[in-house]
Amino acid sequence: MKEEEVMHLLSHYRHDLLNDIQLIHGYASMGNLDKIKEKVKNVIDHFNQERLLTNLNCPHFMIWVLTFHTKYNQFKLTYQVEMGMSSLTSSDLSIYTTSEEMMDLLHKHISKDRIYNGELLIGEEEGMPFLTYTFQGPIYKIMDLKAHLLKISFIKEVDLNEESCKITIAL
Protein backbone atom coordinates (compact mmCIF):
# COMPACT_ATOMS: atom_id res chain seq x y z
CA MET A 1 0.00 0.00 0.00
CA LYS A 2 1.38 3.38 -1.00
CA GLU A 3 1.76 6.26 1.44
CA GLU A 4 -1.07 8.20 -0.22
CA GLU A 5 -3.40 5.23 0.13
CA VAL A 6 -2.52 4.87 3.80
CA MET A 7 -3.22 8.57 4.35
CA HIS A 8 -6.56 8.22 2.52
CA LEU A 9 -7.49 5.19 4.64
CA LEU A 10 -6.57 6.94 7.87
CA SER A 11 -8.49 10.05 6.86
CA HIS A 12 -11.69 8.09 6.23
CA TYR A 13 -11.16 6.05 9.38
CA ARG A 14 -10.72 9.19 11.48
CA HIS A 15 -13.79 10.77 9.84
CA ASP A 16 -15.99 7.79 10.75
CA LEU A 17 -14.67 7.66 14.32
CA LEU A 18 -15.22 11.40 14.82
CA ASN A 19 -18.80 11.02 13.55
CA ASP A 20 -19.44 8.36 16.20
CA ILE A 21 -17.89 10.51 18.95
CA GLN A 22 -19.90 13.56 17.85
CA LEU A 23 -23.12 11.53 18.04
CA ILE A 24 -22.23 10.38 21.55
CA HIS A 25 -21.44 13.98 22.51
CA GLY A 26 -24.77 15.14 21.09
CA TYR A 27 -26.68 12.48 23.03
CA ALA A 28 -24.76 13.49 26.18
CA SER A 29 -25.68 17.16 25.75
CA MET A 30 -29.35 16.12 25.51
CA GLY A 31 -29.00 13.85 28.55
CA ASN A 32 -30.06 10.81 26.53
CA LEU A 33 -28.25 8.07 28.45
CA ASP A 34 -30.02 5.22 26.61
CA LYS A 35 -28.80 6.49 23.20
CA ILE A 36 -25.29 6.96 24.60
CA LYS A 37 -25.21 3.38 25.86
CA GLU A 38 -26.55 2.09 22.54
CA LYS A 39 -24.01 4.04 20.47
CA VAL A 40 -21.07 3.08 22.70
CA LYS A 41 -22.13 -0.58 22.49
CA ASN A 42 -22.28 -0.31 18.67
CA VAL A 43 -18.79 1.26 18.54
CA ILE A 44 -17.38 -1.47 20.83
CA ASP A 45 -19.04 -4.19 18.72
CA HIS A 46 -17.60 -2.64 15.55
CA PHE A 47 -14.06 -2.57 16.94
CA ASN A 48 -14.39 -6.14 18.25
CA GLN A 49 -15.40 -7.28 14.75
CA GLU A 50 -12.49 -5.33 13.29
CA ARG A 51 -10.13 -7.07 15.74
CA LEU A 52 -11.46 -10.45 14.59
CA LEU A 53 -11.01 -9.39 10.96
CA THR A 54 -7.42 -8.35 11.71
CA ASN A 55 -6.76 -11.66 13.49
CA LEU A 56 -7.49 -13.52 10.24
CA ASN A 57 -4.04 -12.30 9.10
CA CYS A 58 -5.25 -11.38 5.61
CA PRO A 59 -3.76 -7.92 5.01
CA HIS A 60 -4.92 -7.52 1.40
CA PHE A 61 -8.45 -8.64 2.17
CA MET A 62 -8.64 -6.67 5.43
CA ILE A 63 -7.64 -3.42 3.71
CA TRP A 64 -10.12 -4.16 0.91
CA VAL A 65 -12.94 -4.59 3.47
CA LEU A 66 -11.95 -1.47 5.42
CA THR A 67 -11.84 0.63 2.24
CA PHE A 68 -14.86 -1.03 0.62
CA HIS A 69 -17.12 2.01 0.91
CA THR A 70 -14.61 4.25 -0.87
CA LYS A 71 -14.34 2.01 -3.94
CA TYR A 72 -17.96 0.85 -4.12
CA ASN A 73 -19.83 3.99 -3.09
CA GLN A 74 -23.24 2.56 -4.00
CA PHE A 75 -22.76 -0.26 -1.50
CA LYS A 76 -22.76 -0.26 2.28
CA LEU A 77 -21.16 -3.34 3.79
CA THR A 78 -21.22 -4.55 7.35
CA TYR A 79 -19.28 -7.65 8.31
CA GLN A 80 -19.26 -10.31 10.96
CA VAL A 81 -16.39 -12.66 11.68
CA GLU A 82 -17.36 -15.77 13.63
CA MET A 83 -15.46 -16.24 16.85
CA GLY A 84 -12.69 -18.82 16.77
CA MET A 85 -11.79 -18.32 13.12
CA SER A 86 -8.23 -19.39 12.41
CA SER A 87 -5.69 -17.53 10.34
CA LEU A 88 -6.42 -17.35 6.62
CA THR A 89 -3.00 -16.00 5.64
CA SER A 90 -2.45 -18.55 2.88
CA SER A 91 -5.81 -17.61 1.30
CA ASP A 92 -5.42 -13.83 1.56
CA LEU A 93 -4.85 -13.08 -2.12
CA SER A 94 -7.47 -15.61 -3.25
CA ILE A 95 -10.11 -14.07 -0.96
CA TYR A 96 -9.15 -10.55 -1.98
CA THR A 97 -9.09 -11.14 -5.76
CA THR A 98 -12.27 -13.24 -5.73
CA SER A 99 -14.15 -10.65 -3.68
CA GLU A 100 -12.95 -7.80 -5.87
CA GLU A 101 -13.82 -9.63 -9.10
CA MET A 102 -17.24 -10.49 -7.69
CA MET A 103 -17.95 -6.86 -6.77
CA ASP A 104 -16.76 -5.57 -10.13
CA LEU A 105 -19.21 -7.93 -11.86
CA LEU A 106 -22.04 -7.15 -9.47
CA HIS A 107 -21.51 -3.42 -9.97
CA LYS A 108 -22.35 -3.87 -13.68
CA HIS A 109 -25.77 -5.33 -12.79
CA ILE A 110 -27.17 -2.76 -10.38
CA SER A 111 -29.15 0.45 -10.51
CA LYS A 112 -26.86 3.47 -10.58
CA ASP A 113 -29.24 5.56 -8.46
CA ARG A 114 -29.65 3.15 -5.51
CA ILE A 115 -27.74 2.35 -2.35
CA TYR A 116 -27.31 -1.37 -1.71
CA ASN A 117 -27.06 -2.59 1.87
CA GLY A 118 -24.87 -5.63 2.29
CA GLU A 119 -23.60 -8.03 4.88
CA LEU A 120 -20.49 -10.17 4.84
CA LEU A 121 -20.33 -13.25 7.04
CA ILE A 122 -16.92 -14.87 7.47
CA GLY A 123 -17.10 -18.29 9.06
CA GLU A 124 -16.19 -21.94 9.01
CA GLU A 125 -18.26 -24.98 8.26
CA GLU A 126 -16.79 -28.39 9.01
CA GLY A 127 -13.37 -26.75 9.33
CA MET A 128 -13.58 -25.10 5.91
CA PRO A 129 -13.63 -21.28 5.71
CA PHE A 130 -16.33 -19.47 3.75
CA LEU A 131 -17.43 -15.91 3.03
CA THR A 132 -21.07 -15.12 2.30
CA TYR A 133 -22.00 -11.76 0.82
CA THR A 134 -25.66 -10.70 0.87
CA PHE A 135 -26.91 -7.51 -0.80
CA GLN A 136 -30.40 -6.01 -0.93
CA GLY A 137 -31.58 -4.01 -3.94
CA PRO A 138 -32.56 -4.44 -7.58
CA ILE A 139 -30.32 -6.71 -9.64
CA TYR A 140 -30.48 -6.71 -13.45
CA LYS A 141 -29.78 -9.50 -15.95
CA ILE A 142 -29.61 -12.02 -13.13
CA MET A 143 -29.04 -15.11 -15.29
CA ASP A 144 -26.13 -13.43 -17.05
CA LEU A 145 -24.68 -12.30 -13.72
CA LYS A 146 -25.06 -15.76 -12.18
CA ALA A 147 -23.32 -17.42 -15.14
CA HIS A 148 -20.38 -15.01 -14.91
CA LEU A 149 -20.12 -15.29 -11.12
CA LEU A 150 -20.01 -19.10 -11.19
CA LYS A 151 -16.99 -18.93 -13.52
CA ILE A 152 -14.95 -17.14 -10.83
CA SER A 153 -12.62 -19.40 -8.86
CA PHE A 154 -13.77 -20.18 -5.31
CA ILE A 155 -17.36 -18.95 -5.82
CA LYS A 156 -19.42 -21.97 -4.83
CA GLU A 157 -22.97 -20.71 -4.48
CA VAL A 158 -24.96 -17.90 -6.09
CA ASP A 159 -28.56 -17.18 -5.12
CA LEU A 160 -30.00 -14.25 -7.09
CA ASN A 161 -33.39 -12.71 -7.61
CA GLU A 162 -34.51 -9.31 -8.81
CA GLU A 163 -34.25 -7.74 -5.33
CA SER A 164 -31.26 -9.39 -3.66
CA CYS A 165 -28.24 -11.60 -4.06
CA LYS A 166 -26.33 -14.02 -1.89
CA ILE A 167 -22.88 -15.16 -3.00
CA THR A 168 -20.73 -17.68 -1.13
CA ILE A 169 -17.00 -18.07 -1.53
CA ALA A 170 -15.56 -21.33 -0.20
CA LEU A 171 -11.87 -22.09 0.12
From TrEMBL:
Key words, A-Z: Kinase, Phosphoprotein, Transferase
Presence of keyword Methyltransferase: no
InterPro entries: Sig_transdc_His_kin_SpoOB, Spo0B_C_sf, SPOB_a
Transmembrane segments: none
One Pfam family per UniProt: SPOB_a
Native source organism of the sequence: Salirhabdus euzebyi
Domain SpoOB alpha-helical: 4-55
Highest rank taxon of the organism: Bacteria
GO MF entries: phosphorelay sensor kinase activity
Protein name as catalogued: Stage 0 sporulation protein B (Sporulation initiation phosphotransferase)
Entry EC no(s): 2.7.-.-
